[in-house]
Amino acid sequence: MIIKGFCHPPRSADKLAASVMLLSEGRLQLSTAQGHQVLLLETVNINEPLGRLPIRLSFPDGSQFIPDDSQLLEGVLKARERTWLHRVERNLPAIASSLVLMGLLFALFFTHGIPWLTSGIVKALPQQVPVLVGQHVMQTLDDNVLTPSELSVAQQALIKQRFHTMVAQLPPMPVKPQLHFRRWHARPNALALSDGSIVVFDALVALAKTPEQLDSILLHELGHLHYQHVMKSIVRSSLLSASVAVLTGESTGLVDTYSGAGVFFVTQGYSRKAELEADEFAVKSMFDLYGTTEPMQQMLQLFITPNGIANELPEWMNTHPALETRIERLGE
Ligand SMILES: [Zn+2]
Predict the structure, then answer these.
(1) Torsion sign over Cα 5, 10, 11, 17
(2) 221 C-alpha to center of ligand 1: Å?
(3) Residue 320: its pLDDT value, please?
(4) Which residues cross the membrane (predicted)?
(5) What are the chain's domains?
(6) Which of 24-38, 208-222, 287-301 tops mean pLDDT?
């Protein structure tokens, strides 16, 4: 429908005969004797009529259109608004399902895309990367928290010998396993680094009552090496932080805080899975090497003190399903 009226050109009191017409896709055509101009309706400012004043359209270039019949233009604009709303309503199921689909895609990206990318990247990394990262972490730990082991040379040699005999019977490892002895106060703990280093703390050696019990923990750490969990967790947290930054766009402090928490919980989920994998590796190896998982169960029991409170739990137990569930699982 063509709506007739007049137009004030920019910064001018001239009154030119003009007309406007609403086109499809939210466009509007302004016609004067000088020519046509097509604009997006959203760039046009609609000045609502005040009292007896007519409705006015202000264009980005400063020109203004005033219709002969204010009510006619109002009616046309209102009808357009209604059809737009109507269109949204009619498409609501489609809009809702695209939102659900988008949510699903995000979820899939985090549950499958990130692990897939992580494995790919870790496989493609040159061998020097896990070696350098491992050496750096070891150096940092030595500089800050660890002290030299107080175990006798003979005892260290004996454990190392058992360790290498075990490794020789296991499937080949992506990195060369090496055993190190350190002290970290009285913490019975062991940890695996990306370069193949497994660090055993004196208190763990003291806690184990038999060599097989200590072996079960070493096998758990070897499980981490087998699956390259350390390098994967480093690559994964970088990927997660990068994805969150991309998805949320500009990072405000608030987004940082929440995405930080999100990354933390997602990472916790992944590391619980890593602990289960390392456990399964240890269980299978215990069966292969000793025909039983009993020493592993006994070792886990040793972490529970008589008053029911567990010893300060090592890294791999904090992120773990409850100790009792773990022992039960082994019994099955
Ligand atoms: Zn672990």
Answers:
(1) negative
(2) 6
(3) 47
(4) 92-117
(5) 2-90 (2.30.29), 108-331 (no CATH)
(6) 208-222
Measured N-to-C along each axis, helices 211-226 and 253-290 cross at an angle, to the nearest 10 degrees, of: 130
- Quote the mean pLDDT of the chain: 83
Cβ–Cβ under 8 Å, residues 1 and 76:
yes
CA of 309 to the centre of ligand 1 (A): 20
Cβ distance 236 to 118 under 8 Å?
yes
Q: Ion ligand 1 — residues with CB under 5 Å?
A: 275, 278, 316
Q: How far is the CA of 189 from the centre of ligand 1 (A)?
A: 10
Given a contact cutoff of 8 angstroms between Cβ atoms, the answer to whether 236 and 267 are in contact is yes
* Higher-confidence position of 5 and 85: 5
Ligand 1 center from residue 269 Cα (angstroms): 14
Res 316: pLDDT: 45
Task: Band the pLDDT of 166: cuts 50, 70, 90.
Answer: very high
